[in-house]
Each structure stands twice: as C-alpha cells, then as structure tokens.
Design brief:
Ubiquitin-like (UB roll), 5 helices, alpha/beta, six-stranded antiparallel beta sheet, 329 residues, 3 domains, 22 strands, Rossmann fold
C-alpha cells in the first residue's frame, strides 16, 4: 500500500509507503527536497503539511495544516505538502564500501583531518559539498562532509572536530591507524553549487563547515570557474581557522575569489575582521537580491544568516545550507 503525495502550486506528485519518510519517497521518485542531517535535528527539510495525516517519531499522528520535518514524516493518508524548495533530479546512486585509513593529521588541537582510500579501482561520483555516512559497529551513523573535490574521487578527506565524550571522535578516531577499515556510504546531501545560481555567490562557514566549502572552491578552481565568489570563514579564535593559509593562497591566485576570515573573540595580535561571521556579510552587502548564499556549520549561525539575509532581499530559495548538528560526536 502507498499514498499519493502532491506538491502545492505545481504538478509534482509521487507515491510514499507508510514505512518511508516523505523525504525518502521524494528522493526515490526523482525529486529533491532540501535536507541536511536526516535525523530530525536541524530544520533544513522543514515544510508545510497542507492537508493529510502523517506520523512523527515521539509525537504521533498530526494533520495539516502544520509544519513538519519531511525526513521524519511518514504518511497515514494522501498528502499535499509545500516544501521550501523542490527540484527534479535523478535518484541518487549511493555506494556502501569499506574504506581504508590512509593518513591522519592534527590540523588544530580539536580538529583531525582523516584521509580515506577506497578499494583499488573504485571511484565514487559525488558533488562538491556533499557528505558521507560512517557506520559504527552498532549500526549508528555519523555524517562528515567531503573536503576533497569530486575529481579526486578514489578516496575522501574528512575534517573531524573532537567532541568531548564523542563516540566517534574519541572512541573511534583516536584509535585509528593507517590500514584500518571504516564502513562508509556515499554520497548524501543537498548542499552543492547550482549551475543556475546567479553571478554573485557568497560562501559562508564556521569551524569545520570549511570542509564542504573547500570541496566547492577546489572544484571551481579545477573547472576554470569565472563566477565571482566571496568566502567568509568565521571562528572564535585564530587557531580555529585551522587551514587559514589555504584559502588565502586560493584568493591570491584566483581573481574571481575573495576571502574574508572573521573572528568573534580575537586576541590582540589579530589584524583581520572581528564580528559574527554573518554580521560581516551584512556589513559588506547592502542588498543580497542578486546573490546566492551557501552556508555551512553551526545551526545558530545558519538560522541567523537565513533570517538576516532574506531581510536584505535574498530570495529564500537561494539560501542553501548544511547545518552541522550534534550527533554524539
């Protein structure tokens, strides 16, 4: 048995089984709804249930009209929905495999860069900005953005922040050595540069949200991009900008790219911008009507950026985000 899901305001419809989420059904049917965590923690996939009934974990059955997370909502009747954005797209082709630890480097006291290699001869297609899932021994999963560009697809580079008490960052990562295996599945994610984006692109990151932005920019460099991009990387302290010299080097060699590091709690030696990173964007741009924004990192930053940027004229459908939500490390 399956139910019919229609999208308000257009001719899109698809089927959804009672045991799958609306997000999963849309994806299977060739439609993309914005999402990030797929765990019901962030609000990236939030949209309107216009009519019908859905069940939600820890909530029970709810009926329209109300806001729901499409990654959690499972149908109990035919539905009419209104997501923030929906795009026609080929259903994703994902691979599960065992990846080998190639190298680990400590980029900052609380950030490790983990390089994984796929089996010989295996290359995985993904888009710059997407992420993979690492499966833990008990089946629980952790999400990490891929920091390498898609052309380097015989492995992945992951930037992992250490979380006190974290099951992965402390219990697994600290014990890994070259040659160890991790079970991964990829690609996931709706966070990637759109070809139809307007000419002006603003990239925004906090902390290890730098990882998918790195993938995007290095992909653009390899492809000979000419569209203007302005990248803002925010953190509290200088040491939190753990690869600061890299985007500085990019900006020196690519005339279309400018880089703005921003610290909210700098020491006396800092000579750069000081502010919350989204406030730095607002200080530089009186209007955002002709821009597209790609923001990754702290969910509080993303929420603040979305609200303040749309107030400056940014169309909501041109705000793309990947919120790094807590998952137990």
């Amino acid at each position: 048995m399956s139910y019919r899901v229609t999208v308000a305001g257009n001719d899109i419809e698809f089927s959804c089984a009672p045991d799958e989420s609306v997000l999963e059904a849309a994806e299977r049917s060739g439609f993309a709804i914005p999402y990030s965590c797929r765990k019901g923690v962030c609000d990236t996939c939030q949209g309107e249930l216009v009519s019908g009934e859905v069940s939600l974990p820890n909530t029970g059955v709810v009926a329209g009209k109300t806001s729901v997370l499409f990654c959690r909502a499972r149908p109990r009747s035919d539905l009419e929905i209104q997501p923030k954005r929906i795009e026609r797209r080929e259903p994703p082709v994902r691979r599960k495999l065992k990846a080998s630890v190639f190298r680990l480097t400590r980029a900052a006291p609380d950030v490790t860069i983990l390089f994984l290699r796929f089996p010989i001869g295996v290359r995985i297609k993904f888009k710059a900005g997407q992420y993979l899932q690492v499966t833990l021994p008990d089946g629980d999963r952790r999400h990490f953005s891929m920091a390498n560009p898609p052309l380097s697809n015989d492995g992945v580079e992951l930037h992992i922040r250490h979380v006190p008490g974290g099951r992965f960052s402390e219990d697994v990562l600290t014990k890994l050595k070259a040659g160890d295996k991790l079970e991964v599945e990829l690609p996931y994610g709706d966070f990637f540069l759109r070809e139809e984006s307007p000419p002006r692109i603003i990239l925004l990151a906090t902390g290890t949200g730098f990882a998918p932005i790195k993938s995007m920019i290095e992909d653009a460099l390899k492809r000979g991009n000419e569209r203007p991009m302005r990248f803002y990387w925010g953190a509290r302290k200088r040491e939190d900008l753990y690869l600061l010299e890299l985007p500085q080097k990019w900006a020196e060699h690519a005339r279309w790219l400018s880089f703005v590091p921003v610290l909210s709690e700098p020491d006396a030696a800092w000579r750069g911008r000081t502010d919350l990173v989204h406030e730095a964007v607002l200080a530089d741009h009186e209007s955002l009507t002709d821009a597209a924004v790609y923001a990754c990192g702290n969910p509080l930053m993303i929420d603040a950026a979305r609200d303040s940027f749309t107030a400056r004229g940014l169309p909501q459908e041109r705000f793309y985000a990947d919120a790094f939500v807590p998952s137990g490390g």
